[in-house]
Amino acid sequence: MVKTILGQVKEFQKDSLITPACMVLEVIMEMLIPLLMASIIDNGVEKGDMGYIYKTGAVMMLLAVFGLIAGMMGAKYGARAATGLGKNLRAAMFGNIQSFSFANIDKFSTAGLVTRLTTDVTNIQNAYQMILRMCVRAPISMVTAMAMAFIINAKLASIYLIAVILLGFCLFLIMGKAMRYFKEIFPKYDDLNASVQENVSAIRVVKAYVREEYENGKFTKASGNIYQMFTKAENILTWNAPLMQVAVYGCILAISWLGAKMIITNALTTGQLMSLLAYCMNILMSLMMLSMIFVMVTMSMASAERIAEVINEESSLSDPEHPILEVPDGRITFEHVDFSYSGALQEEPQTEGRELVLKDINLEIHAGETIGIIGGTGSAKSSLVSLISRLYDATAGSVSVGGINVKEYSMEELRNQVSVVLQKNVLFSGTILENLRWGDKNATKEDCIQVCKMACAHEFIEQLPNQYDTYIEQGGSNVSGGQKQRLCIARALLKKPKILILDDSTSAVDTATDSKIRQAFATEIPDTTKLIIAQRISSVQNADRIIVMDNGRVVDFGTHEELLRRSEIYRDVYESQTGGSGDFDQQGGGR
Q1: Are 504 and 372 in contact (CB under 8 A)?
Q2: Which partner from 124, 276, 364, 433 sits 20 to 30 angstroms from 498, CA to CA?
Q3: pTM for the full model?
Q4: Per-residue CA distances from 134 to 73, 97, 168, 287, 590 (Å)
């Protein structure tokens, strides 16, 4: 974990080395000043030598200035190193997240990843800056002050040593109890972020159902949990200040009392007593700083573990050593394929003891065919097509594209040739053209217009005030569901794929527009293999062949006419839908 975090210091190593060096220089300056102060009192004030006072005072002033400059430089370089580490940690996490397979992403909640990229990184950043500055300054200051005190008078310095040992033991107990609460706090931030994210993304639903009060309650509960945990931790940490005050004033009283006696007996000078009192404050304040560092490090340890978990997470999918860089055609073959989400992160494809989502799938699809996929909710239609573009790997069996196992391809090349319009349509903030060019960043406006015409999106785009330069709000909130689906289809077509998968991607489109899109596919991209998942049989009845799925199995595969003759499930759904109602899930279509 520590190695992972420090590995992200990278180009800020120089700043990380300069900072503690400046802190050491600052401590040296501070430690010399009490000695000079004692010398002024003993050799200047008591002897009435004003020249000595001026000379020594000037040296003290110079040391103070050097110490101030060293402290400022330490603050500057420490801030650069800490913020640089934070920048690199965010970049490392975000970069690794981009390499995650769907199986990896399923391990982390969206809110959890946001917390790690924000709150957790901020904790590490603050802790790192404190370690570079205070964690170097405090121990050196304490040890140096202690050594100076023993040089002046070992007997009185022993009071400091005893106070430090007792205070250190008490602080250790306090920190140990507080650490338990800090480790529990940060997962609570995930719940808070999840509540905010869900509320904001679904604000229209919240208002439509007048659930503001309920959502406020959820947020208040999540926020209250964090408050309670922090309160418990802080209640323990409040003992730091009283203990420190007792130690400081106890040492001052003891040294003043014993020191006064020693001055009377000429065993100690007045200047030496003043130096010892100055070192007293240095020692005990250094210990206080160490306690603050311990609190910060304790808080950041939980954050460091969560960050390292994301950075060290390895994708469950990877390219072979010598990947194939060209997909010959759009043929698709499933051979005895089993799939389980619980086994998606396992290296060994063993199915025993796992709940299979897909069971013994065998399919042969020819290049250029239009294949419909019908099945009830939970029949694993989306799971089936996700194996083609290798969003997941089959748990058992093999999936081939163009006669080659998908695991032998470069994933980038495979996914460029297998274009997927997912069930949940997503548009990004930006213009319509910018969204379309996700399919091909080098596409011309004419290319974009052509695919929009195929997807029946050109008509409504032309009616917008800025047409193709119209700005799409976050999540596509300023376009309708059907418009969003058509833009996503156009974006997928722009890739000019050998396989096009539409995962229930025309559900929000009217029947006439759906028919136009299918007709455009047949005439404009005849060589592209098209897989269309749909709930409406009218959307797939003209397909070359139709897959009927139920409970993770292919129960039939044939043309519309063949299925009407031999598939009871298909025939019942067809008759119910053409009769004016009909829900696939109510017709024996799966779970």
Answers
A1: no
A2: 433
A3: 0.67
A4: 14, 34, 17, 10, 63
Which residue in this structure is represented by tokens 């790997």? 393
Question: What tokens does 339 get?
Answer: 């799939």
- Which helix (H) or strand (E) segment holds residue 372: the answer is strand 370-375
Residue 8 buriedness (CB in 10 A; 0-12 / 13-18 / 19+)? buried
User: Which residues have C-beta within 8 Å of that of residue 416, sequence separation ≥ 6?
Assistant: 495, 497
Cβ atoms within 10 A of the Cβ of 360, count?
15
Instruction: For Cα atoms 271, 275, 277, give the angle at the middle one, nearest 5 degrees.
Output: 115
Q: What does the alpha-carbon distance between residue 578 and residue 513 come to, in Å, rounded to a whole number?
A: 18
| Phi, psi for 15 (deg, rounded to 5) | -65, -35
pLDDT of residue 508: 62
CA dist., res. 109 & res. 244, Å (int): 42
What's residue 344's pLDDT? 55
Distances (CA, A) of 349 to 101, 104, 322, 325: 16, 16, 22, 25
Q: How many CB atoms lie within 10 A of CB 136?
A: 20
Report pLDDT for 507. Answer: 65
Q: What is the Cα Rg of the chain in Å?
A: 35
Cα gap 454→131, rounded to integer Å: 60
φ, ψ for residue 350, nearest 5 deg: -100, 130
3-class state of residue 216 by DSSP? helix
The helix/strand/coil state of 360 is strand
Longest dimension (CA), the chain: 120
The CB-side HSE value for 24 (13 A sphere, CA atoms) comes to 5
In sequence order, the 6+-apart residues with CB closer than 8 A to the CB of 578 are 537
Compute the distance between CA of residue 16 and CA of residue 253 in angstroms, rounded to an integer.
Answer: 40
SS3 string of 465-510? CCHHHCEECHHHCCCCHHHHHHHHHHHHHCCCCCEEEEECCCCCCC
pLDDT surpasses 70 at 347: no
pLDDT tens-digit map of 365-424 = 998 888 888 887 778 888 888 888 888 888 888 899 988 898 888 888 888 888 888 767
Q: 37-46, 215-224, 326-335, 400-409 — which is least confidently predicted?
A: 37-46
Residue 341, by phi and psi: left (phi above 0), alpha (psi -120 to 50) or beta? alpha
